[in-house]
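To the wet lab folks,

You asked to see what we're planning to order before we commit. Fair enough. Below is the target structure as tokens, and below that is the sequence we designed to fit it. If anything looks off to you, flag it before the synthesis order goes out.
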């Protein structure tokens, strides 16, 4: 119901939920969004684990760019919610990956040791942290150039060319993620 890929108007869905539970819209969002973010972090870290265990690496091209973007979204969500410090930073994130290995062992068997896994995650975090400021500056310039309003093409360029996660674009632009963003990206791929 709250999957922006599957609804025409996500804000209408939020309003409908608010009406059904008879609570103000902001209360509903404040209750649901952190839970959604938690599920995103869990899903994305499992995804990154499987990609890297299968030999993929985060990069700027091909499937590697998907891996990098997914991992950067994890970093951004953890920071946005104040969870990065609560989990113990990079060491806590690495523990989460280890928990996934234990959990998934029932389905896939014991994971082989990947000696550079932690180094890959640490390097990607350092790259993300050092580029986030530059990305925000680029994005702020784009927003100013477009008089405070980003078009769908602007969103796609920022995501696909500059590697900026939609969550960060939304945070900086103070605009909600467009309802049709991911569907349009998939159509144009």
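Sequence we intend to order:
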């Amino acid at each position: 119901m709250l999957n922006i890929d599957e609804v025409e108007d996500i804000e209408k869905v939020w309003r409908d939920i608010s009406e059904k539970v008879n609570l103000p819209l902001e209360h509903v969002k404040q209750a649901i969004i952190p839970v959604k973010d938690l599920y995103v972090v869990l899903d994305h870290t499992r995804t990154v684990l499987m990609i890297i265990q299968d030999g993929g690496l985060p990069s700027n091209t091909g499937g590697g760019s998907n891996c990098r973007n997914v991992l950067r979204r994890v970093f951004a969500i953890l920071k946005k919610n104040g969870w990065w410090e609560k989990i113990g930073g990079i060491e806590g994130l690495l523990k989460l990956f280890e928990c996934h290995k234990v959990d998934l062992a029932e389905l896939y068997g014991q994971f082989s040791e990947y000696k550079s896994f932690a180094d890959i995650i640490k390097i990607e975090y350092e790259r993300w942290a050092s580029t986030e400021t530059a990305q925000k500056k680029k994005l702020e310039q784009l927003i100013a150039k477009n008089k405070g309003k980003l078009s769908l093409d602007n969103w796609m360029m920022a995501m696909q060319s500059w590697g900026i996660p939609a969550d960060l674009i939304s945070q900086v632009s103070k605009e909600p993620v467009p309802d049709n963003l991911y569907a349009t990206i998939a159509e144009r791929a």
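Structural context that might help your review: Residues 10-188 form one domain. The first helix runs from residue 10 to 21.

Thanks,
Computational group
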